[in-house]
Write a structure and sequence with these properties.
408 residues, Butyryl-Coa Dehydrogenase, subunit A, domain 1, Butyryl-CoA Dehydrogenase, subunit A, domain 3, globular, binds flavin-adenine dinucleotide
Length: 408
């Protein structure tokens, strides 16, 4: 396995780094970026349109989307180090390059399974960064980490589908640019397990679809992301052509979105952890206790050394998963993706936690980004499937593995 970056990737790394340094990091001021205090209701960061225009001009646009000529033509392995750099500023960087969740996953599905009409209506403006989208799968009433429990009903009614049910955690639903929800529900309750669910595209302003509120993330409203919508679907009617992918194929279609989505989060988490290390290092050099900079304390140096080991190991796990996705396919690489999904948020959380400790009270406050980075790493131990579910699938694969040597 050769994880050395190609010249093309090195060039892009330099350009993405310069873009982040010159445009994105300065856009974080004032601190309210992390709070969105001075933003329009549920809108993007105020400078986002300018950042997107600049990113497009520099050819730093849609860097994700392998296997599709509409993206930048990068493999997952090539995209990983670039997504990592955008993760240094997770509320601005990825969106500025049109590489943010949940749109990336939705674009992957639409590009792979969307009809020509769906691609024209939804994929084209998403790729152009003109609209945003949400993915509406999780439900408050059922344990949604087992997707078989998803209960929203999508009934076949003549030339329409009719949706009834409630969703929550539909990230980005409240963004003013969000125009479409990709909704998972039951079309075929009598079918065998795994073939009961389908996906449909629902315009966010469809009659009967009400956004009740947004849930918070440890108190952060995630306004930049468009919140996390609690959505009521009451007799929402969409045409038959709204079906995305095959009827009864909802799980398979969603899976093709979740694998890349998970690994993209891991790539960005490495960047968040790197930022935490950069911040804690600078801070420790300048804060003096009992006559010595904190950086000279053994305990701080242990934290720093451990952070470097953890991050480097996590990066290799991510690159390995990306490499496998490129070489054997997303489905076959699911165990490598699961391993990354378990390991990386935990590593990032640990590293950011130590950076918070280094900052003292400043780290707990939201005057610095560490608190927000921490909650992001923490929630990613639940979002995209909780750790336990990924451990379950890894353990089941392990139980089937034939050992190299027979010793029992
Ligand atoms: C910030 C954020 C953004 C999100 N964005 C989206 C989105 O855009 N669209 C969307 O549809 N969803 C989204 N989600 C929802 C997320 O995917 C779900 O919360 C997650 O899949 C878990 O489902 P649940 O909340 O129903 O938990 P439950 O299924 O109720 O599980 C609760 C707990 O049970 C335990 N558990 C579950 N299964 C097992 C097992 N096999 N073994 C042992 N323990 C187990 C785990 O500890 C788990 O955390 C988001 C969540 C968050 C926090």
């Amino acid at each position: 396995m050769d994880f050395d970056y190609t010249d093309k990737v090195k060039d892009l790394q330099g350009r993405v780094t310069a873009f982040m340094q010159d445009y994105v990091i300065p856009s974080e001021e004032p601190i309210s970026t992390w709070f969105a205090e001075n933003r329009d209701e549920w809108g993007a960061a105020p400078m986002m349109d300018d950042l997107k225009a600049e990113a497009k001009k520099q050819g730093l646009w849609n860097l994700f989307l392998p296997e599709d000529s509409r993206g930048a033509g990068l493999s997952n392995l090539e995209y990983a180090p670039l997504a990592e750099i955008t993760g240094w500023s997770p509320t601005i960087g990825p969106e500025a390059l049109n590489c943010s969740a949940p749109d990336t996953g939705n674009m992957e599905i639409l590009s792979r399974y969307g009809s020509p009409e769906q691609q024209e209506e939804w994929l084209k403006p998403l790729l152009a960064g003109d609209i945003r989208s949400c993915f509406s799968m999780t439900e408050p009433a059922v344990a949604s980490s087992d997707a078989n429990n998803i209960a929203l009903r999508i009934e076949d009614d003549g030339d329409s589908w009719v949706l009834n049910g409630r969703k929550w955690w539909s990230s980005s639903a409240l963004r003013r640019e969000t125009k479409v929800a990709l909704v998972m529900g039951v079309t075929d309750p009598e079918a065998e397990v795994g073939k009961r669910h389908s996906l449909v595209c629902v315009p966010i302003d469809a009659p009967g679809l009400t956004i009740l509120r947004s849930t918070t993330v440890f108190g952060f409203d995630d306004r930049h992301e468009g919140g996390h919508g609690v959505l009521d679907y009451v007799d929402v009617r969409v045409p038959k052509s709204a079906l995305l992918g095959p009827r009864g194929g909802g799980f398979a279609v969603a899976q093709s979105r979740l694998g890349p989505g998970r690994i993209h989060h891991c790539m960005r988490l490495i960047g968040m952890a790197e930022r935490a290390v950069a911040m804690m290092t600078e801070r420790a050099k300048t804060r003096v206790t009992w006559g010595e900079p904190v950086a000279d304390q053994g305990v701080f140096q242990t934290w720093l050394a451990d952070a470097r080991i953890q991050i480097n190991a996590a990066r290799l796990v991510v690159l390995n998963a990306a490499f496998k996705m490129d070489t054997i396919g997303n489905k076959e690489a699911r165990h490598e993706i699961a391993a990354a999904k378990i390991m990386v948020p935990q590593v990032a959380r640990d590293v950011i936690d130590r950076a918070i400790q280094t900052f003292g009270g400043a780290g707990i406050s939201s005057d610095f980004p560490l608190a927000y980075l921490y909650v992001t790493a923490r929630y990613l131990q639940v979002a995209d499937g909780p750790d336990e579910v990924h451990r379950r699938s890894l353990a089941r694969a392990e139980l089937k593995r034939v050992p190299l040597l027979k010793v029992m």
